[in-house]
Amino acid sequence: MAAKSAGSALDWGWNHSPxxxxxxxxxxxYTVATAGTVxxxxxSHALLVAGAGAAAQVGADLYQHRPAGHTAARxxxxxxxxxxxxxxxxxxxxxxxxxxxxxxxxxxxxxTLARGLVRAEATARTERHQRKLQKWANKQAxxxxxxxERLFRLEGHQVDGVRPWKGDVGYTVLxxxxxxxxxxxxxxxxxxxxxxxxxxxGGIQILDGDTYGQTLIRVTAVDVLAKVVDxxxxxxxxxxxxxxxxxxxxxxxxxxEARIAVVDECALVVGQTGSGKxxxxxxxxxxxxxxxxxxxxxIDVTGAGISLPWLHSWAVDGTANVPLxxxxxxxxxxxxxxxxxxxxxxxxxxxGHQDLLTEDDKLTVTHDLPEVLVAVDEIAELTPxxxxxxxxxxxxxxxxxxxxxxxxxxxxQDVITAAMKKxxxxxxxxxxxxxxxxxxxxxxxxxRINPKAAPYKGCGFYSSPDEDxxxxxxxxxxxxxITPKQIRALSVAYADRRxxxxxxxxxxxxxxxxxxxxxxxxxxxxxAKQLAPTTxxxxxxxxxxxxxxxxxxxxxxxxxxxxxxxxxGPRVVASTATTTAPAGPQVRVGSDLLTTxxxxxxxxxxxxxxxxxxxxRADFGRVIQQAGTPEDRPSPVPQLLAEAHQHVVAAGGxxxxxxxxxAHGLDPRAxxxxxxxxLRDVGVERPGVGTVRIGDESKSxxxxxxxxxxxxxxxxxx
Length: 718
Description:
Structural class: alpha+beta
C-alpha cells in the first residue's frame, strides 16, 4: 500500500490551454459582475482593470515579438470583457438572461480567438525556426563546399545538405563525391578536425551514404562523453515500457540514446576495475525493470552487490511491496539452484507453450508470459560447473525468451566461455587501457577502435543488432549515471508493474525450491538486520534446502539429475525441508567413497620384496607410476588431493588455504604449491584466481567442486 500511496499526489500546476485560460478570464469577469452588483462596485473599476490588462498584454506581446494584429486582437478581447462588466455593473443586470447570453457568446468567441491565435503563432514560430535553420544549413553547405575544395582539391563535388543533431552537439554533412575521387583521403579526419578547431572530445566520423558516391561526414562539436549524464527519472521517463524497446545505456556522441536489444540476443559487458561497469549494469537493470514484461534474476557470488540497491526498498525500507529482483544467487550453491530452475523452465516452456508458436518459432513476450533476463556479475568467480549450466541457458533459451547478460573484467577465454562470446551479439566494452582487448571483444570494427575516443569514466563502446538485425560497428557512448538513492526511488515506482513467472515455468522439480528462495537468501545477505514486514509473505514458509552431492558439493535439484562429471557418485538422501536457515556454511555428510578411495591409494605395509606388479611409487601424495591389472590397480587419484577434497566437503564446500594446510599438518606454502601443481597437471583452474569468500571475508582457498573436477580428471586418465 505504501508503494501505491507514494505515487499519488495533487498537481497544483497551471497547466492550461489557451482556450481554458480564456474561459477562466471570462468566468472571472462574470463573478466580478455578479458580486459587484450586490456590493455596489462602481463600473469604472471594471474599465480600469480592463485597461490595465490590455496594457500588460501589449508589453508581453512586444517582448515575445508577436505580430501587431495578434496584439490588437488580444487587447480588444480585454476591453470587450471590461466593457461588458462595466455595463452589467451599471445596470445591475448580471443575473438576467440577456446579460448571460452576451457573456456566453463573448466567452465562446474568446476561446476560439485564443486557440486560433496560438495555432497561428506556433505555425509562424515553426516557420521562423525552419527559415533560420535553412539559412544556417545553406551557410554551412557553402563553407563545407569551400573547405573540401581547399583541403582536398576536390572538383565537381556537391554538398547536398547539413542536418543538425539533437541537443545542438553536432551535425551531419551529406556530400556527393565526384566520380574521379569517390572517397576522401586517409588523413581527412585529422585535417577536418584541425580546420574546424574542434574541442577535445569532439571529432569527425566519415561514413558511406545510402548510395555509392555519397559520403556522410559526422561532426561532433561538443564533448558529450565528458559530461555526467544522469539517468532520466521524470514522470515521462518512468512510464511503462516493453523489453522489445531495448535497454537504454546512455548517450552517443551525437546526443542520441544508446540502446541494446536483449529479446533475441544475450549481452556481454566487460570493463576493467573502475571503468563504471557496475554503474552500466545497474542502468541496464533500470531499463529492464521499467518494463512490465521482464523478470530479472541476478547471479553475483561476491556478495550480491548488483542486487542489494534494488532490494533495499523492499527488504529494509518496506516502501516497495515486492522484490524488484525476482531471484538473487549470492552463493555458488544458490546459483546452481537458480540455473537448474531456469534450465528446467526452458524445457517446460518449449513443450508447454507449443500452441503459442503458430505464427513464429519464438514466444511473444507479454506481462503474463515475461522474458527471463539473468544478469551475471563477476563471472570469473564462478566454477566450471556453473559456467557449463550458463552455457546451456545461452544456447537453448532464445526461442522461449530466456536471455543472459554476462559481466566480466575481460573478454578473454579464461573469463568468458566460448559459447557466451559467440552467442552474445550484444557487446559492451567499458573503458580499457589496451586496444587489443577491444579488438578481442568486437568481432568487426574492433581493429579501428581507439580507446582514447572514450577516455572518461563511464565511457565505453557498444554494438547491438538494429531493427534490421544487422550488428553495427562499435560506437562510443557515455553511460547514464544512476545513484543508490535514485535506485530506491525507482524501486518504489516500478514495484507494482513486476510480472511473475507463469505456472508452466515453475511446474518442474528444481522449481520446488523457488518459493522459499528468499528464506535462504535474506538471512545471508542481511544477517541480523531487521527486515521490513513486506518480506514476510516471501519468508513465512518452510525453507527448503536441496540435498547435496557428497562428492562435488553441488545441490541436487532433480531426481534424474546426473553428476557434473557424468559419474555416478554418492548422493545425500537427507530431508530437504527445514524451518530455519542455517547460520553458517552447511556441514555436509562425510563420504564413505572417499574413505575407501584414500585407503586404496595408500600402499599397504609389508615386506620390501613384494612383486613389482603391486608396487606404487609416489611423490608427496601424487601417484607417479603404478603397475598391476586394472582390477588390482589402486585409484590414480593423488592422496593429497583426495584428502584435501574430504576436508573441504566436511567444512561445507569451501575452505581457506591456511585452514586446509593446518588440517593436513603441513606448511601452508609447501601445501599450496603441491596442491596447485596437482590441479594444473590435469588442466583444472581455480575460479576467481583462487579467492574464496566465507562470510564477509575473501582469502585464497579451495572449493569442493574444483577439487572434485580434478579428481574426476585423474580418474579419466587411468
